[in-house]
Amino acid sequence: MDITIHTTVLPHEDPDESLAFYRDTLGFEVRSDVGQGKMRWITVGPADQPGTSILLAPPAADPGITEDERATIAQMMAKGTYGWILLASRDLDGTFEKVSGGDAEVVQEPTMQPYGVRDCAFRDPAGNLVRIQEVA
Fold it and tell me: How many other CB atoms are there within 10 angstroms of residue 101's CB atom?
């Protein structure tokens, strides 16, 4: 089999704020931006990795989702427990400095974890947890 990771999805509440975080703060390129208002689907990714993307999407756009499910999604997003992603950087300290210099909410400064990984964590504008792991 030849399988690659192509796209992962994270929810957004405010497409402009999410776009600013992923494009301006993290430096990802915008690959597509379709829809209007809060009903926008924005695809971003690292410029040097054209085959890997993050789709920033309205969280409850599926017409099959009930009002109770929409409320649950909204509650989980508000707590930061609905979506998360693990990124990697060769320069964790430099990356932390750049990201924390923006409007990102710092969850954890660079730390050596007991399981042998050094990482840091932020919340994006929608409350998604963004962990950044140091790689060699």
Answer: 9
pLDDT, average across residues 71-96: 93
For the entire predicted model, the pTM comes to: 0.90
By C-alpha distance, which of 105, 5, 82, 103 is closest to 46?
5
Contacts of 75 (CB under 8 A, 6+ apart): none
Looking at the DSSP bridge assignments, the partners of residue 4 are none
- Please give the distance of CA 105 from its chain centroid, rounded to a whole number: 13
**C-alpha span between 75 and 81 (Å, rounded):** 9
Check: CB of residue 128 under 8 Å from CB of residue 85. yes
Query: pLDDT tens digits, residue range 46-63?
Result: 999 999 999 999 987 888
* SS3 (DSSP) at 64: coil
- Biggest alpha carbon distance in the chain? 45
CB 6 within 8 Å of CB 53: yes
DSSP per position, 54-103: EEEE-TT--TT--HHHHHHHHHHHHHT-S-EEEEEES-HHHHHHHHHTTT
pLDDT for 104 equals 85
**Kind plus residue range of the DSSP H or E element containing 77:** helix 67-79
